[in-house]
Amino acid sequence: MGSSSSSLTIELNRDPPLYYGGELLKGVVRLQPDDVQFNAKELSLKVEGKTVGNDLVQHTVLIGVDYTNIEVKECIFFKKHIILAKPTPGEDKFLVSKNQNTWTFEIELPTYAPPTFSLLQNLYQYQHQPAVHFIVEANLKKSFSSLTNTKAIIFRPSVFIKTRTPASWSIINRQMIQLNIHIPQGIAYVSGEIINGIIEFNNPRHIRIKRIECKVLQTLIVGYGSYTGSIVKFNVPKISDTTEEIRKETFQIQLPQDLPPSYNYSPNEQSQHKATIVEYSLSFMVRVIGILSDIEVVKPLLIGTNPCKYEENGTIILKDKRPPKQLPPISTQQSIDKTTATIPLITKEHSSQTREYNNYATNIILKNET
């Protein structure tokens, strides 16, 4: 007995389904049989995290020419499976009645795993682009068929920003144009924040400066597959087609919401899991009249997470929040320190450890997950 119109659904305890490393994924599986009753063999639930990326499968050299074969490969780096309902001992089936049946569940998520991301909404060639997915899937096995329901969740490893230190950079091109950039709150932020800064140039030869372009770049890497693109792009206001000797302006960069945090997930050499990296950088390009005269400054940007729980209409929602200490608004009257501030990119050793990145600390212990 049984009907194909029976419904199996998963209801999670958060909307949107945003979860952080080490948290409990909670929810309910609901079954509404269409028949008065039917027999089932097993009701199970699994949580799975997997990467999608290019893999180097063969590299040969023939007559001095390199031939490299790349294929798209999925690798499961996290999987948990639980049984929600099964027959009593000695039986091979259990009875499901007409009344709606519900089963609650909770599964602990990994503490250290790559954040979810996908380029499906932006690129046509999705199969060649890196991605990380977390899914929850319920499956009801019947005698000759099965019911399945799958939901995607948003996973974020915790990357905490402890402190912020001002960052400044200075560079001079071949035409003696000096570019100075100062960011009082430094280069560590969470999604949705605004980066405030001051940009200044000294142009003693009165060379024509066409514009100053600013970008926030995002790099996503899974195995041999990578993607780099602009998530923010604009021209610095009030600087356009000028030959002024000295000019100073403020700028603001609005970071998008729901960015995956900066992360480097590097399994050990024996693992089949693929290295997964999320990186960000700030790019400033001064477009100048003349050959090879443009000035470019590219510096790493750390995107972290500061999870905060609160209730809205009875629903627990977890969102990123800003670090408690906020510096006051800046003005163009502030002096610019010519010292250079740098921040190393996140790296991982094969042993468990805690790393700090200058004065930008990410309270992460990176270790292998099996």
Q: Report the major sheet.
A: 6 strands, mixed
Q: Give the distance, in angstroms, between the N- and C-terminal Cα atoms.
A: 41 Å
CATH class of the largest domain: Mainly Beta
Can you tell me the residue ranges where pLDDT is under 50 for at least 5 consecutive residues? 121-127, 321-370
**Helicity level:** under 10%
List the helices and strands and how they pair.
Elements: E1 7-12, E2 18-20, E3 24-32, E4 37-40, E5 42-62, E6 65-85, E7 94-97, E8 101-108, E9 131-141, E10 146-156, E11 167-172, E12 178-183, E13 188-190, E14 194-202, E15 209-222, E16 225-242, E17 246-254, E18 263-265, E19 276-288, E20 295-304, E21 307-312, E22 315-320, E23 353-357, E24 360-366
Parallel strand pairs: 2-10, 13-20
Antiparallel strand pairs: 1-3, 3-8, 4-7, 5-6, 5-9, 9-10, 11-12, 12-14, 14-17, 15-16, 15-19, 18-19, 19-20, 21-22, 23-24
What does the model show?
InterPro entries: Arrestin-like_C, Arrestin-like_N, Arrestin_C-like, Arrestin_domain-protein, Ig_E-set. It holds the Pfam family Arrestin_C. Residues 173-308 form the Arrestin C-terminal-like domain. This is Arrestin C-terminal-like domain-containing protein. By secondary structure, the protein is an all-beta fold. It has two domains: 7-156, Immunoglobulin-like (Sandwich), CATH 2.60.40.640; 167-366, Immunoglobulin-like, CATH 2.60.40.640. The protein has no helices and 24 strands. It has strands at 7-12, 18-20, 24-32, 37-40, 42-62, 65-85, 94-97, 101-108, 131-141, 146-156, 167-172, 178-183, 188-190, 194-202, 209-222, 225-242, 246-254, 263-265, 276-288, 295-304, 307-312, 315-320, 353-357, 360-366. Strands 13, 15, 16, 18, 19 and 20 form a six-stranded mixed sheet that branches. It has a five-stranded mixed sheet with strand order 2-10-9-5-6, with no helix packed on it. Strands 11-12-14-17 form a four-stranded antiparallel sheet, with no helix packed on it. It starts with 6 loop residues before the first strand and ends with a strand. The model is unreliable at 121-127 and 321-370 (pLDDT under 50).
